[in-house]
Amino acid sequence: MLKQLALVLLLCGLALAEETYDGYKIYDVKTNNPLEKQLLYRLSKNEAYDFFDLPRSLDAPSRVMVKPDDQVAFEMLLDKYHVNFVVVDENLGDSLRKTSEDNQRMMNMRSAGRSISFTAFHRHAEINAYLDELALAYPSRVKVEVAGKSYEKRDIKTITISNGDGRTDKNVIFLDAGIHAREWIAHAGALYVIHQLVENFAANSDLLRDYDWVILPVVNPDGYEYTHTNTRLWRKTRKPISASCYGTDANRNFDFHWGEVGASSYSCSDTYKGETAFSEPETQIVRDLLLGLSGRGKFYLTLHSYGNYLLYPWGWTSALPSTWRDIDEVAQAGAAAIKSATGTKYTVGSSTNVLYAAAGGSDDYAFGVAKFPISITMELPAGGTGFNPTTNQIQGFVSETWLGIQAMAKKVVQKY
Ligand code: 0X9
Ligand code: ZN
Protein backbone atom coordinates (compact mmCIF):
# COMPACT_ATOMS: atom_id res chain seq x y z
CA MET A 1 0.00 0.00 0.00
CA LEU A 2 2.74 2.40 1.05
CA LYS A 3 4.73 1.45 -2.03
CA GLN A 4 1.74 2.18 -4.27
CA LEU A 5 1.23 5.53 -2.61
CA ALA A 6 4.91 6.36 -3.11
CA LEU A 7 4.64 5.46 -6.79
CA VAL A 8 1.57 7.65 -7.27
CA LEU A 9 3.33 10.53 -5.51
CA LEU A 10 6.40 10.00 -7.67
CA LEU A 11 4.35 10.02 -10.88
CA CYS A 12 2.47 13.14 -9.77
CA GLY A 13 5.79 14.73 -8.92
CA LEU A 14 7.17 13.88 -12.33
CA ALA A 15 4.08 15.28 -14.01
CA LEU A 16 4.22 18.54 -12.09
CA ALA A 17 7.98 19.04 -11.90
CA GLU A 18 9.35 21.96 -13.80
CA GLU A 19 11.50 21.02 -16.78
CA THR A 20 14.70 23.07 -16.52
CA TYR A 21 16.44 21.75 -19.68
CA ASP A 22 19.73 21.83 -17.77
CA GLY A 23 22.47 20.35 -19.92
CA TYR A 24 20.22 19.88 -22.94
CA LYS A 25 22.04 20.63 -26.19
CA ILE A 26 20.71 21.86 -29.48
CA TYR A 27 22.37 20.67 -32.67
CA ASP A 28 22.14 21.76 -36.28
CA VAL A 29 22.60 18.70 -38.45
CA LYS A 30 23.49 19.29 -42.08
CA THR A 31 22.91 16.51 -44.57
CA ASN A 32 24.78 16.42 -47.86
CA ASN A 33 23.01 13.64 -49.75
CA PRO A 34 19.69 11.75 -49.74
CA LEU A 35 21.21 8.88 -47.78
CA GLU A 36 22.20 11.18 -44.91
CA LYS A 37 18.75 12.76 -45.03
CA GLN A 38 17.24 9.28 -44.72
CA LEU A 39 19.36 8.60 -41.65
CA LEU A 40 18.01 11.79 -40.14
CA TYR A 41 14.43 10.72 -40.90
CA ARG A 42 15.10 7.43 -39.11
CA LEU A 43 16.55 9.29 -36.11
CA SER A 44 13.51 11.57 -36.00
CA LYS A 45 11.34 8.52 -35.21
CA ASN A 46 13.38 8.00 -32.03
CA GLU A 47 11.56 9.71 -29.15
CA ALA A 48 14.91 10.46 -27.47
CA TYR A 49 15.60 13.15 -30.03
CA ASP A 50 13.36 16.21 -30.34
CA PHE A 51 13.48 17.41 -33.93
CA PHE A 52 12.44 21.07 -33.99
CA ASP A 53 12.28 20.82 -37.78
CA LEU A 54 12.94 18.34 -40.54
CA PRO A 55 12.72 20.13 -43.87
CA ARG A 56 12.74 18.19 -47.12
CA SER A 57 15.41 20.38 -48.67
CA LEU A 58 18.93 18.96 -48.41
CA ASP A 59 20.38 22.46 -47.99
CA ALA A 60 18.42 23.32 -44.87
CA PRO A 61 19.89 21.91 -41.65
CA SER A 62 17.67 20.19 -39.10
CA ARG A 63 17.65 21.44 -35.54
CA VAL A 64 17.54 18.75 -32.87
CA MET A 65 17.33 18.98 -29.07
CA VAL A 66 19.02 16.15 -27.17
CA LYS A 67 18.98 15.54 -23.41
CA PRO A 68 22.26 14.97 -21.55
CA ASP A 69 22.01 11.15 -21.32
CA ASP A 70 21.52 10.72 -25.06
CA GLN A 71 24.17 13.11 -26.35
CA VAL A 72 27.13 10.70 -26.55
CA ALA A 73 25.16 8.11 -28.54
CA PHE A 74 23.73 10.81 -30.82
CA GLU A 75 27.11 12.33 -31.63
CA MET A 76 28.70 8.89 -32.12
CA LEU A 77 26.02 7.89 -34.57
CA LEU A 78 26.40 11.06 -36.63
CA ASP A 79 30.21 10.65 -36.59
CA LYS A 80 29.90 7.03 -37.70
CA TYR A 81 27.96 8.07 -40.81
CA HIS A 82 30.12 11.19 -41.34
CA VAL A 83 27.13 13.51 -40.96
CA ASN A 84 28.13 17.10 -40.16
CA PHE A 85 26.71 18.80 -37.11
CA VAL A 86 27.31 21.88 -34.97
CA VAL A 87 26.16 22.56 -31.42
CA VAL A 88 24.13 25.77 -31.51
CA ASP A 89 23.25 25.76 -27.80
CA GLU A 90 25.59 24.15 -25.25
CA ASN A 91 23.09 24.42 -22.42
CA LEU A 92 19.50 25.18 -23.29
CA GLY A 93 18.67 25.48 -19.58
CA ASP A 94 20.91 28.54 -19.26
CA SER A 95 19.48 30.14 -22.41
CA LEU A 96 15.89 29.61 -21.36
CA ARG A 97 16.50 31.00 -17.88
CA LYS A 98 17.91 34.17 -19.44
CA THR A 99 15.00 34.61 -21.88
CA SER A 100 12.48 33.94 -19.12
CA GLU A 101 14.05 36.55 -16.82
CA ASP A 102 14.08 39.00 -19.71
CA ASN A 103 10.39 38.29 -20.42
CA GLN A 104 9.48 38.69 -16.76
CA ARG A 105 11.16 42.12 -16.73
CA MET A 106 9.51 43.25 -19.94
CA MET A 107 6.02 42.04 -18.93
CA ASN A 108 5.71 44.99 -16.60
CA MET A 109 6.52 47.56 -19.27
CA ARG A 110 2.99 47.91 -20.66
CA SER A 111 1.32 51.22 -21.35
CA ALA A 112 -1.34 52.22 -18.87
CA GLY A 113 -4.73 50.57 -19.33
CA ARG A 114 -3.40 47.94 -21.71
CA SER A 115 -2.98 44.30 -20.82
CA ILE A 116 -0.47 43.46 -23.53
CA SER A 117 2.52 44.89 -25.40
CA PHE A 118 4.72 43.76 -28.25
CA THR A 119 7.82 43.85 -26.09
CA ALA A 120 6.97 40.75 -24.05
CA PHE A 121 5.16 37.43 -24.38
CA HIS A 122 1.98 37.68 -22.37
CA ARG A 123 -0.01 35.14 -20.41
CA HIS A 124 -3.37 33.77 -21.55
CA ALA A 125 -5.33 35.82 -19.01
CA GLU A 126 -3.66 39.03 -20.23
CA ILE A 127 -4.45 38.15 -23.85
CA ASN A 128 -8.10 37.54 -23.00
CA ALA A 129 -8.17 40.79 -21.01
CA TYR A 130 -6.83 42.66 -24.06
CA LEU A 131 -9.66 41.30 -26.22
CA ASP A 132 -12.20 42.45 -23.63
CA GLU A 133 -10.58 45.89 -23.46
CA LEU A 134 -10.99 46.24 -27.23
CA ALA A 135 -14.64 45.13 -27.07
CA LEU A 136 -15.25 47.81 -24.47
CA ALA A 137 -13.37 50.56 -26.31
CA TYR A 138 -14.72 49.80 -29.83
CA PRO A 139 -18.22 48.34 -29.32
CA SER A 140 -19.37 49.06 -32.88
CA ARG A 141 -16.50 47.24 -34.56
CA VAL A 142 -15.48 44.51 -32.12
CA LYS A 143 -17.29 41.51 -30.70
CA VAL A 144 -15.60 39.08 -28.29
CA GLU A 145 -17.14 35.67 -27.69
CA VAL A 146 -16.23 32.59 -25.69
CA ALA A 147 -16.10 29.88 -28.35
CA GLY A 148 -15.75 27.16 -25.71
CA LYS A 149 -13.53 25.90 -22.94
CA SER A 150 -10.19 24.12 -23.04
CA TYR A 151 -9.70 20.80 -21.25
CA GLU A 152 -8.55 22.69 -18.13
CA LYS A 153 -11.59 24.97 -18.44
CA ARG A 154 -9.94 28.10 -19.75
CA ASP A 155 -12.06 30.41 -21.90
CA ILE A 156 -11.13 30.15 -25.58
CA LYS A 157 -12.13 33.50 -27.01
CA THR A 158 -12.61 34.77 -30.53
CA ILE A 159 -12.64 38.38 -31.58
CA THR A 160 -14.77 39.32 -34.58
CA ILE A 161 -13.65 42.55 -36.20
CA SER A 162 -15.84 44.45 -38.64
CA ASN A 163 -16.06 48.02 -39.93
CA GLY A 164 -19.26 48.57 -38.00
CA ASP A 165 -21.52 49.10 -41.03
CA GLY A 166 -23.98 46.49 -39.75
CA ARG A 167 -23.78 44.14 -42.74
CA THR A 168 -23.93 40.53 -41.62
CA ASP A 169 -23.39 38.68 -44.91
CA LYS A 170 -19.75 39.49 -45.53
CA ASN A 171 -17.04 37.06 -46.47
CA VAL A 172 -14.73 36.10 -43.64
CA ILE A 173 -11.03 35.74 -43.03
CA PHE A 174 -10.47 33.33 -40.15
CA LEU A 175 -7.10 33.48 -38.44
CA ASP A 176 -5.86 31.40 -35.54
CA ALA A 177 -2.64 30.91 -33.62
CA GLY A 178 -1.23 28.85 -30.82
CA ILE A 179 -2.31 25.40 -31.96
CA HIS A 180 1.20 24.51 -30.77
CA ALA A 181 1.89 25.76 -27.27
CA ARG A 182 5.59 26.59 -27.51
CA GLU A 183 5.36 28.69 -30.67
CA TRP A 184 4.96 31.95 -28.75
CA ILE A 185 5.73 34.27 -31.67
CA ALA A 186 2.59 32.95 -33.39
CA HIS A 187 0.35 34.09 -30.53
CA ALA A 188 2.09 37.48 -30.60
CA GLY A 189 1.58 37.63 -34.38
CA ALA A 190 -2.18 37.12 -34.02
CA LEU A 191 -2.33 39.85 -31.37
CA TYR A 192 -0.54 42.24 -33.71
CA VAL A 193 -3.07 41.53 -36.48
CA ILE A 194 -5.86 42.29 -33.99
CA HIS A 195 -4.08 45.48 -32.91
CA GLN A 196 -3.71 46.63 -36.53
CA LEU A 197 -7.27 45.91 -37.60
CA VAL A 198 -8.86 47.44 -34.50
CA GLU A 199 -6.52 50.15 -33.25
CA ASN A 200 -5.12 51.14 -36.65
CA PHE A 201 -8.49 50.81 -38.39
CA ALA A 202 -8.17 53.91 -40.59
CA ALA A 203 -5.08 52.53 -42.33
CA ASN A 204 -6.62 49.07 -42.81
CA SER A 205 -10.27 49.86 -43.53
CA ASP A 206 -10.02 48.45 -47.09
CA LEU A 207 -9.48 45.01 -45.53
CA LEU A 208 -12.76 45.36 -43.63
CA ARG A 209 -15.05 46.81 -46.32
CA ASP A 210 -16.38 43.53 -47.70
CA TYR A 211 -14.81 41.17 -45.18
CA ASP A 212 -15.10 40.47 -41.46
CA TRP A 213 -12.18 38.94 -39.62
CA VAL A 214 -12.60 36.27 -36.96
CA ILE A 215 -9.45 35.76 -34.92
CA LEU A 216 -8.72 33.09 -32.31
CA PRO A 217 -5.32 34.03 -30.89
CA VAL A 218 -4.82 31.10 -28.49
CA VAL A 219 -6.22 27.77 -29.68
CA ASN A 220 -4.40 25.78 -27.00
CA PRO A 221 -4.36 27.85 -23.80
CA ASP A 222 -3.61 24.92 -21.46
CA GLY A 223 -0.48 24.10 -23.41
CA TYR A 224 0.46 27.77 -23.64
CA GLU A 225 0.15 28.30 -19.88
CA TYR A 226 2.14 25.10 -19.29
CA THR A 227 5.00 26.50 -21.40
CA HIS A 228 5.04 29.55 -19.11
CA THR A 229 4.89 27.62 -15.84
CA ASN A 230 6.51 24.20 -16.36
CA THR A 231 7.93 23.10 -19.66
CA ARG A 232 8.93 25.84 -22.08
CA LEU A 233 9.01 23.56 -25.11
CA TRP A 234 5.66 21.81 -24.60
CA ARG A 235 3.84 21.46 -27.94
CA LYS A 236 0.60 19.58 -27.34
CA THR A 237 -2.68 20.06 -25.51
CA ARG A 238 -2.81 18.95 -21.85
CA LYS A 239 -5.50 16.29 -21.49
CA PRO A 240 -4.00 13.22 -19.82
CA ILE A 241 -3.87 10.18 -22.09
CA SER A 242 -2.13 7.55 -19.99
CA ALA A 243 -0.67 7.44 -16.47
CA SER A 244 2.41 9.38 -17.46
CA CYS A 245 1.67 10.91 -20.87
CA TYR A 246 -0.30 14.04 -21.52
CA GLY A 247 -1.59 15.84 -24.51
CA THR A 248 -2.38 15.46 -28.17
CA ASP A 249 -0.83 17.25 -31.10
CA ALA A 250 -3.81 19.40 -32.06
CA ASN A 251 -2.42 19.70 -35.58
CA ARG A 252 -2.74 15.93 -36.05
CA ASN A 253 -6.22 15.70 -34.52
CA PHE A 254 -8.47 17.08 -37.30
CA ASP A 255 -10.71 14.59 -39.08
CA PHE A 256 -9.32 14.63 -42.57
CA HIS A 257 -7.24 11.58 -43.49
CA TRP A 258 -6.68 11.46 -39.74
CA GLY A 259 -3.64 9.48 -38.66
CA GLU A 260 -2.71 8.36 -42.16
CA VAL A 261 0.77 9.85 -42.27
CA GLY A 262 3.23 11.85 -40.15
CA ALA A 263 1.30 11.35 -36.92
CA SER A 264 2.09 9.07 -34.00
CA SER A 265 -0.13 6.52 -32.24
CA TYR A 266 2.13 6.67 -29.19
CA SER A 267 0.60 8.92 -26.56
CA CYS A 268 3.94 10.21 -25.27
CA SER A 269 4.99 11.39 -28.72
CA ASP A 270 5.01 15.09 -29.57
CA THR A 271 3.01 14.31 -32.72
CA TYR A 272 0.41 12.09 -31.00
CA LYS A 273 -2.71 12.08 -33.18
CA GLY A 274 -5.15 11.64 -30.27
CA GLU A 275 -7.43 8.76 -29.25
CA THR A 276 -9.86 9.64 -32.04
CA ALA A 277 -10.15 12.47 -34.54
CA PHE A 278 -11.38 15.54 -32.67
CA SER A 279 -10.71 13.93 -29.30
CA GLU A 280 -9.67 17.36 -27.96
CA PRO A 281 -12.07 20.15 -26.94
CA GLU A 282 -9.66 22.66 -28.50
CA THR A 283 -9.81 21.10 -31.99
CA GLN A 284 -13.58 20.66 -31.69
CA ILE A 285 -13.82 24.41 -31.12
CA VAL A 286 -11.79 25.22 -34.25
CA ARG A 287 -13.83 22.65 -36.22
CA ASP A 288 -17.13 24.21 -35.16
CA LEU A 289 -15.95 27.73 -35.94
CA LEU A 290 -14.70 26.67 -39.40
CA LEU A 291 -17.88 24.76 -40.21
CA GLY A 292 -19.98 27.66 -38.93
CA LEU A 293 -18.26 29.94 -41.45
CA SER A 294 -18.52 27.52 -44.36
CA GLY A 295 -19.62 29.47 -47.44
CA ARG A 296 -18.58 32.87 -46.05
CA GLY A 297 -15.10 31.71 -45.06
CA LYS A 298 -12.67 32.48 -47.89
CA PHE A 299 -9.28 32.55 -46.20
CA TYR A 300 -8.10 30.35 -43.33
CA LEU A 301 -4.70 31.35 -41.98
CA THR A 302 -3.07 29.52 -39.09
CA LEU A 303 0.06 30.92 -37.48
CA HIS A 304 2.85 28.63 -36.31
CA SER A 305 6.60 28.79 -35.93
CA TYR A 306 9.16 28.26 -37.16
CA GLY A 307 11.00 28.09 -40.47
CA ASN A 308 9.67 30.88 -42.73
CA TYR A 309 7.18 28.83 -44.71
CA LEU A 310 3.86 29.60 -46.34
CA LEU A 311 2.33 26.15 -46.62
CA TYR A 312 -0.85 25.03 -48.29
CA PRO A 313 -2.74 21.77 -48.86
CA TRP A 314 -2.18 19.06 -48.92
CA GLY A 315 -0.37 17.99 -45.80
CA TRP A 316 -1.57 14.39 -46.14
CA THR A 317 -0.42 13.67 -49.70
CA SER A 318 2.13 14.98 -52.15
CA ALA A 319 -0.64 15.45 -54.73
CA LEU A 320 -1.82 19.04 -55.17
CA PRO A 321 -5.44 20.19 -55.05
CA SER A 322 -6.80 21.24 -58.45
CA THR A 323 -7.01 24.89 -57.31
CA TRP A 324 -3.47 25.03 -55.93
CA ARG A 325 -2.57 27.93 -58.25
CA ASP A 326 -5.10 30.18 -56.49
CA ILE A 327 -3.57 29.45 -53.10
CA ASP A 328 -0.06 29.72 -54.46
CA GLU A 329 -0.86 33.17 -55.87
CA VAL A 330 -2.04 34.38 -52.44
CA ALA A 331 0.94 32.88 -50.61
CA GLN A 332 3.41 34.28 -53.17
CA ALA A 333 1.91 37.75 -52.62
CA GLY A 334 2.64 37.39 -48.90
CA ALA A 335 6.18 36.16 -49.45
CA ALA A 336 6.91 38.96 -51.96
CA ALA A 337 5.61 41.68 -49.61
CA ILE A 338 7.84 40.44 -46.79
CA LYS A 339 10.86 40.01 -49.06
CA SER A 340 10.62 43.54 -50.40
CA ALA A 341 10.05 45.10 -46.96
CA THR A 342 12.71 43.35 -44.89
CA GLY A 343 14.55 40.92 -47.16
CA THR A 344 13.27 37.94 -45.15
CA LYS A 345 12.78 34.93 -47.40
CA TYR A 346 9.75 32.64 -47.09
CA THR A 347 9.48 29.28 -48.87
CA VAL A 348 6.10 28.77 -50.52
CA GLY A 349 4.60 25.40 -51.41
CA SER A 350 2.42 22.50 -50.35
CA SER A 351 3.13 21.20 -46.83
CA THR A 352 4.04 17.74 -48.03
CA ASN A 353 6.26 18.93 -50.84
CA VAL A 354 8.27 21.60 -49.05
CA LEU A 355 8.19 20.40 -45.41
CA TYR A 356 6.92 16.90 -44.64
CA ALA A 357 3.74 14.86 -44.89
CA ALA A 358 1.52 15.11 -41.81
CA ALA A 359 -2.20 14.37 -41.84
CA GLY A 360 -4.85 15.71 -39.49
CA GLY A 361 -3.82 19.38 -39.76
CA SER A 362 -6.25 22.27 -39.39
CA ASP A 363 -5.26 23.67 -42.80
CA ASP A 364 -6.25 20.51 -44.69
CA TYR A 365 -9.54 20.40 -42.74
CA ALA A 366 -10.40 24.05 -43.47
CA PHE A 367 -9.73 23.49 -47.16
CA GLY A 368 -10.99 19.93 -47.64
CA VAL A 369 -14.02 19.90 -45.35
CA ALA A 370 -15.04 23.46 -44.42
CA LYS A 371 -14.35 24.52 -48.03
CA PHE A 372 -12.29 27.62 -47.42
CA PRO A 373 -10.82 28.17 -50.93
CA ILE A 374 -7.61 29.60 -49.49
CA SER A 375 -5.97 27.82 -46.57
CA ILE A 376 -2.45 28.57 -45.45
CA THR A 377 -0.15 27.68 -42.57
CA MET A 378 2.34 30.45 -41.92
CA GLU A 379 5.49 29.39 -40.10
CA LEU A 380 7.00 32.55 -38.63
CA PRO A 381 10.77 32.97 -38.28
CA ALA A 382 12.83 31.30 -35.59
CA GLY A 383 14.15 33.39 -32.73
CA GLY A 384 16.72 32.51 -30.10
CA THR A 385 17.50 28.87 -30.76
CA GLY A 386 14.14 28.28 -32.41
CA PHE A 387 11.04 28.74 -30.29
CA ASN A 388 12.48 31.32 -27.91
CA PRO A 389 12.84 34.70 -29.58
CA THR A 390 14.15 37.41 -27.26
CA THR A 391 11.65 40.06 -26.32
CA ASN A 392 13.41 42.62 -28.51
CA GLN A 393 12.80 40.41 -31.56
CA ILE A 394 9.01 40.41 -31.14
CA GLN A 395 8.18 43.78 -32.68
CA GLY A 396 10.27 43.13 -35.81
CA PHE A 397 8.83 39.68 -36.36
CA VAL A 398 5.18 40.60 -35.83
CA SER A 399 5.27 43.75 -37.94
CA GLU A 400 6.98 41.91 -40.79
CA THR A 401 4.43 39.09 -40.48
CA TRP A 402 1.61 41.62 -40.62
CA LEU A 403 2.93 42.96 -43.96
CA GLY A 404 2.72 39.44 -45.38
CA ILE A 405 -0.77 38.87 -43.96
CA GLN A 406 -1.95 42.24 -45.25
CA ALA A 407 -0.71 41.40 -48.77
CA MET A 408 -2.34 37.95 -48.69
CA ALA A 409 -5.62 39.39 -47.40
CA LYS A 410 -5.60 42.05 -50.16
CA LYS A 411 -5.17 39.32 -52.75
CA VAL A 412 -8.04 37.31 -51.24
CA VAL A 413 -10.31 40.37 -51.14
CA GLN A 414 -9.54 40.98 -54.84
CA LYS A 415 -10.17 37.37 -55.81
CA TYR A 416 -13.41 36.54 -53.95
O1 0X9 B 1 3.92 19.92 -38.19
C1 0X9 B 1 3.10 20.84 -38.10
O2 0X9 B 1 2.03 20.70 -37.52
C2 0X9 B 1 3.43 22.21 -38.72
N1 0X9 B 1 4.78 22.58 -38.43
S1 0X9 B 1 5.26 22.95 -36.90
O3 0X9 B 1 6.70 23.07 -36.90
N2 0X9 B 1 4.66 24.36 -36.50
O4 0X9 B 1 4.77 21.94 -36.01
C3 0X9 B 1 3.20 22.16 -40.20
C4 0X9 B 1 1.80 21.81 -40.60
C5 0X9 B 1 1.56 21.84 -42.07
N3 0X9 B 1 0.25 21.35 -42.41
C6 0X9 B 1 -0.07 20.04 -42.50
N4 0X9 B 1 0.82 19.10 -42.43
N5 0X9 B 1 -1.34 19.73 -42.65
ZN1 ZN C 1 3.25 24.55 -35.08
Tell me the quaternary state.
single chain
Strand content: 15-25%
Radius of gyration: 21 Å
Low-confidence stretches: 5-14
Q: What is the name of the CATH superfamily of the largest domain?
A: Zn peptidases
Cα-to-Cα separation, first versus last residue: 67 Å
- Indicate the percent of residues in helices: 25-40%
Order of helices and strands: HEHEEHEHHEEEHHEHHEEHEHHEH
CATH class of the largest domain equals Alpha Beta
Instruction: Provide the number of structural domains.
Output: 2
Describe the structure.
The chain is of the alpha/beta class and 416 residues long. It has 2 domains: 21-90, Alpha-Beta Plaits; 122-415, Zn peptidases (Aminopeptidase), CATH 3.40.630.10. The protein is 39% helix and 17% strand. The strands form 2 sheets. An 8-stranded mixed β-sheet has the order 5-6-8-7-9-12-10-11, with helices on both faces. A 4-stranded antiparallel β-sheet has the order 2-3-1-4, with helices on one face. The radius of gyration is 21 Å and the shape is globular. Mean pLDDT is 93; it is low at 5-14. Bound molecules: N~2~-sulfamoyl-L-arginine and zinc ion.
